[in-house]
Amino acid sequence: MNRRLLSRFLRTFRPDDACLDDVSIIYEGDSEFHHITIREEGDCRTMFFGPTGDEAETSIDLANPGRAVFEYPGMMLAALPLFPDGRRIAMLGLGGGYLPRIFQEHLPDYELTVVEVDVLVAELAQIYFGFQPVGNIRLVIGDGRDFINGLADASLDQIWLDAFSGNYVPRQLSGREFLDLCHKRLAPGGLLVQNLHQSRPQAFQNQLKTTEAVFGSFVGLDGLRCGNAVIISQKEGGPPGPPWKKAALEKAAKEFGPALGPYNLVEEWRKLKKFAVNSQAAVIE
């Protein structure tokens, strides 16, 4: 997300443009994996990746930390009602740690392991965004693929992919071999939840094709204020979840409990969209 788009996006949340005043850089540096910038615009603090500082990863409202600044976390959380008893979750990619804080504050019965390859990102998340790996949250510093590879089959209920490198998902976390590995590590009925971006249409379509090749059918939520799409797939063999129909998904969200922090899961499922896989798409090998 470039700076102009970020400013337009943040304006939808703050009519008085409080997030857009007094832009300042409070951190800038390089790790082994990223050039990282943290900027404050009014009350909003945002972590960016990339040499030009235009790939927004996490944003929080310093005056109201519970407010939803970015849209995609709610779209990912919408997956929870599909497998409410699936409480062993691995999340690949930390960013500023906003999603783990939702689990700490609102989902204490879930066991969330967050895997982050970049030790500097983990340090900055704790210093500047209030992330703390305590309670039901465990932080692992390491390669996400290696972490999943080291687990036993059927040892996870959900795998959430929220990792970007450059301007898309790293290849080692997107190909058929990796998704096959995720499929094996998921318990019957387990969920694969992928946060993707539609800014590169062919790469996005290839990811859909690869997901379909490994998991079969999937559902997608389309961001209304951003270019993100969250793709949710379910491994066969578990207790039957709601069918991939909007009314059934909204009903499941209502029964789960629609209010989850700043997000209403019923409203999130109203972003359901059929993402057709086009004929030019190719499985990522």
Describe this structure as you would to a colleague.
Helix 4 links the parallel strand 6 (111-116) and strand 7. 44% of the residues are buried. The two termini are 27 Å apart. This protein folds into two domains: 3-61, no CATH class; 72-273, 3-Layer(aba) Sandwich (Rossmann fold). With 285 residues, it is of the alpha/beta class. The protein contains nine helices and 14 strands.
What fraction of the residues are assigned to beta strands by DSSP? Answer: 25-35%
Strand ordering within the main sheet: 7-6-5-8-9-11-10-14
Number of helices: 9
Radius of gyration: 18 Å
CATH architecture of the largest domain: 3-Layer(aba) Sandwich
Percent of residues in helical segments?
Answer: 25-40%
CATH topology of the largest domain: Rossmann fold
Shape: globular
Largest sheet: 8 strands, mixed
Taking the alpha carbons of the first and last residues, their distance comes to 27 Å
